[in-house]
Amino acid sequence: MFSDLLIRYAQDIVDATQSIAGHPVSITNDKAIILAAWDKKRIGTLHASSFSVIENGRAEGLYEEEAKKLGVYAGICLPLRIEDKIVGTISVAGVPDHVSKYAHLVQKEAELFLREISLKESALLRDSALNNLVNMVISQAGGAEEISFLVSHAASLGYDITTPKIVLIVDLINFKMLVKQIQQEEAFSHEAELRIQAVKLTILTQLRNLLNSNLNIITNISSDKYIVILDISNMPSNDIAKNINQKANAIIDHLKSNGYTATVSIGSIANSPNEIRQSYSDAISALRIGTNIYHTQN
Predict the structure, then answer these.
(1) What does the pLDDT look like over 171-192, one tens digit per residue?
(2) Which end of the chain is more exposed for a tag (fewer CB within 10 A), N or C?
């Protein structure tokens, strides 16, 4: 995975780290082939001095005379290590004594960038899988085989959908107005879209932090609506209504404190995976007709 990320982002890393080092930077893969460099003609060629760095896992400095013998630039070559695996090297050209103070900083910046990109992409993949799971659960009732698949799929994502649940729908009342405001403020449509996506992600993160439990499934179902498949297996049966109402109000109050106007509608109790669809349907119906629904108080 990290090798693929390095291939995709090598030139971005070079461009960013060169500004830090103030010296030419190049990156190779774990076969010592240059993936990105200040001199684009070198891309795809062999960087001979990287072989020993990859093999030994240690930084090496090359002075002018030795560098000429190998057909590379003088400087320092360092391993790029992610999760104890060397995925390539990064080199800073110049006199080793002069560039050494920048080289390790450049190395750490590159490794940090790869880790952050990996985490972001993993989160996006997980959210996509979670959205697919939710859509399958709420779209239609299934037979024994379909339910068995959904239970296994949910378990692979860390969720148990066999325990009692209640579906909540969080509806952002002022979202369209917010979108219009962002579009008016941004000169370019892609910049507006990035801001809108950032708002949606922020709200999703806030909901997940507020209802912090790996038993609850929380995701988007549309631009202005979020679904919470709330686990109620640990709630005493005589306190379920009270607990759910408290959570609905907590969601509304939290969003309001962050500038978002919302309502929360509540579905019926689902005692099996198949019944989650009915709970969702009941929550949507409540949203439409305004019953069993909690409003932001202005």
Answers:
(1) 998 888 888 888 888 877 777 8
(2) C
